[in-house]
Write a structure and sequence with these properties.
Layout lengths: L23 H23 L4 H13 L6 H11 L1 H17 L3 H6 L2 H15 L15 H6 L8 H20 L3 H24 L5 H23 L17
Helix pairs in contact: 1-10, 3-9, 4-8, 6-8, 6-10, 8-9, 8-10
Length: 245
């Protein structure tokens, strides 16, 4: 695949398959379910209902901890960090604005809103980090928010929004069949790896990660809803594409 020489004003043709996917009402229902699930899950965290599960999962991960793989999991942590996800989302946003794909661009504004929701939840829900952690770096999130509570996992929130929306964007506009099919699979692998990493490094409880996926999932679906909202006729601007999958 070679994008060199492609014009940013090449015509963009949305894939026929993207128009055959679930309707806006279906996505709205999914978002409502995710929001409700997050609220119920948060109440369970507050009242300590999930404490036995958290302790059991944390104990299991401590038993399989192997120091030689620490560097690998620190690298995975970077993938879900605010630095990488922020730069990735900002880069896609700026490019989409440059080619005048306004609706797709503004879908990525769900990330800073989700970041604010995460920060507020961490201030409200008293849920300290696990006592044993193998994390070895000071993140931007920790610098901004300070050593606050760990619910929900910001890595889980950000990874599902950023990598999920990028995958959805690719399936909507990319012509290469293999890339369209591979993007969601790659995004799923990255998101799952980040979630596993949070538990393996002992940075978060299982409930933190699950709550992060619920909150991030709600904003991810909000981004999809915004992309699928009826729009005005498209301009002549477009998105680079490859004729080879």
């Amino acid at each position: 695949m070679n994008l060199v020489g492609r014009s940013p004003t090449a015509p963009l043709v949305e894939n026929a398959s993207s128009r055959q996917r679930p309707s806006v009402s279906v996505w709205a229902s999914v978002m409502a379910l995710l929001c409700g699930a997050f609220l119920i899950f948060t109440l369970a965290v507050i009242y300590g209902t999930l404490r036995p599960l958290d302790l059991a999962v944390s104990s299991a991960f401590q038993r399989i901890w192997w120091p030689p793989v620490w560097s690998l999991f620190e690298a995975i942590a970077v993938i879900g960090g605010v630095e990488v996800t922020g730069v990735a989302a900002a880069s896609v946003f700026v490019y989409l604005v440059w080619i005048r794909r306004w609706r797709e661009a503004t879908a990525f504004l769900t990330l800073p809103i989700a970041f604010a929701a995460e920060a507020i939840t961490k201030l409200v829900v008293i849920h300290p980090q696990p006592p044993v952690t193998h994390a070895g770096r000071l993140s931007v999130t920790t610098f901004v928010q300070g050593q606050v509570n760990s619910y929900p996992s910001g890595h889980a929130v950000r990874s599902i929004i950023v990598y999920g929306l990028i995958a959805v964007l690719i399936t909507r506009v990319w012509r290469g069949e293999r890339i369209r099919r591979g993007a969601p699979a790659l995004a799923a692998v990255l998101i799952a790896a980040v979630g596993f990493d949070r538990l393996y490094l002992g940075v978060h409880w299982a409930s933190d990660v699950m709550g992060g996926f619920l909150l991030g999932g709600a904003f991810f679906v909000l981004g999809i809803l915004w992309m699928r909202h009826p729009r005005a006729p498209k301009s002549e601007t477009g998105f680079p594409h490859s004729s080879v999958g």
